[in-house]
Amino acid sequence: MKEPRLRPFRLDLHLHSVLSPCAELEMGAAEIAARAREIGLDGLALTDHNGSANVPALRRACVGGPAVFAGAEVQTEEDIHVVSLFPDDEAALAFQGWLWERLPSTPNDPAVFGYQLVVDEGGGILDQIEPLLVQGVAAGIDEVLREIRSRGGLSILAHVDRPSFSYTAVLGPVPPDVGADGVEFSWRAPEEELRAFRRRLPHLPLLRSSDAHRLEDMRADRTSLFLLESPCFEELRLALRGEGGRRILEPCPFP
Fold first, then answer.
1. For the Polymerase/histidinol phosphatase N-terminal domain, which residue ranges apply (predicted)?
2. I want to staple 47 with a disulfide (CB 3.0 to 4.6 A). Which of 58, 71, 182, 188 is the partner?
């Protein structure tokens, strides 16, 4: 069997578009795609708050590169944020349906929270989502992690170094059997914090992502570097498992 040709790929696996009310209106599909090319990304995941509705537009805007990963940033009923990633748009949108069935009926007030827009690749507005997306769904962290896995997805505990909306802020130190596929640190986290986490839980892969809500927040030094054959979902899954020679090179080598 021919050995795979592996090389480094820089991926940002957590960023937001205009579907997220807290994102700037400049975060349209074409603008995100242009910024990703400008900073040299090989792939990026669109992970709006409790939603994936703008993933198809970003994928069309990124024809020719970079690669697009379909996802959402889930807010659990405990107010823990989890990045979910899926093999394709259909799986991500089906999971969005599961989330929206569990969203409280609180309506969004654009004057307070911002607009929640579904757009096309050219920036045209297709829809405006009425329920407020930045609230916890009626499902706890364990149920959310199980649901993501049952749908063939990957789960990453988001920004565990932050004092709010993180696993550590709500439930304390991440346990060895947490059930997530990886752990994300924000770009603000010092290297020593990542190294200390790695020493305590060496079996969990660590990532760094931009969590960009503005174009200027998308930066190459706020991303992760992977050794893959290509920037696609199955290669990412192998890297998070440390299988087939695939691995994470930055921010913390794994395995």
1. 11-78
2. 71
158 token code pair: 């988001």
The model carries a pTM of 0.96
> What is the DSSP-derived secondary structure letter of residue 217?
G
Given a cut of 90, is residue 169 above it in pLDDT?
yes
Is-contact 20 47, C-beta < 8 A?
Answer: no
3-state secondary structure of 147: helix
- By residue range, what is the domain housing residue 192? 7-250
User: Which residues, including other chains, have CB under 8 Å from residue 90's CB and lie 6 or more apart?
Assistant: none
- What is the total count of domains within the chain? 1
We report the CATH number of the domain holding residue 166 as 3.20.20.140
Q: What is the pLDDT of residue 1?
A: 64
Label the pairing between strands 43-46 and 7-15.
parallel
SS3 content of the chain, % helix, strand, coil (to 5): 30, 25, 45
Q: Which pLDDT value is given to residue 2?
A: 74
Distance CA 59, CA 133 (A): 22
> Within a domain: residue 2?
no
Three-class secondary structure of residue 93 per DSSP: helix
**Cβ proximity of 134 and 75 under 8 Å:** yes
Alpha-carbon distance 169 to 192, whole Å? 19
